[in-house]
Amino acid sequence: MKKLNGISKLLVLALLIGLGGCSAEDGAVGPQGSQGVPGEDGSQGIQGEQGEQGPIGADGEDGNANVIYSDWFFPEWNEFDTPRAKRMAVTDPEFGENYDDGVILFYWITNNGSTFLVPWNSYSTSTGALNISRSMNVRGISGDVWITIRRYDRDFETRDTFGQFEGIIYNRLRYVIIPGNINVSGKSALDYNDYEAVKAFYNLPD
Fold it and tell me: In what order do the strands lie in the sheet with 85-91?
């Protein structure tokens, strides 16, 4: 019995050693598991301090930059003054400076507030005949502009040629000179016969 037990122990030991020397082959890699639920967003960080304000930009040029204009003035018929024809000379060196390239405009406002670009004429409401003509003549580089008014049907009335008479204002004029080097968008499309449009476009004070 003692000998059999020793043999049994030897067999068990040999079996264990044999099993320890054998290794099984690795199995195939299993499929990837599904993605987990995303975690919650973290809390927003503290807002940074506001940056310093940049420097203030320079003001843009007004629409009337370099535009030359006069105040309204009464006519003074200093060249000749007759019952049916009158002329005055208006002097400003800028007329000559802008004779070639600039635009020289004269506006005439009447006692009813109507404003016209010179030249302008008045016609008979019954016959259509020319009654009064008003013209301007820029005299080259001399710096003078002639303003001439003529009446063809009869002598002038007070309201035709007077600036002011017995406290009533009848006629006033002003000129606007637009130098040729002014490049303003929309200038070419401006209707210069429309005084209100010109005044607004060039920001002219009245």
Answer: 80-81, 85-91, 144-151, 130-138, 120-123
28's tokens: 């195939």
Strand segments, DSSP code E, in the chain are 68-69, 80-81, 85-91, 103-109, 115-117, 120-123, 130-138, 144-151, 164-165, 168-169, 172-178
Beta carbons within 8 Å of 164's beta carbon, 6+ residues apart: 74, 170
Indicate the average pLDDT of the chain: 81
* pTM summary value: 0.68
Taking the C-alpha atoms of residue 116 and residue 107, their distance in angstroms, rounded to an integer, is 6
What does residue 183 show for φ and ψ, rounded to 5 degrees? -115, 95
Contact (Cβ atoms closer than 8 angstroms) between residue 103 and residue 93: no
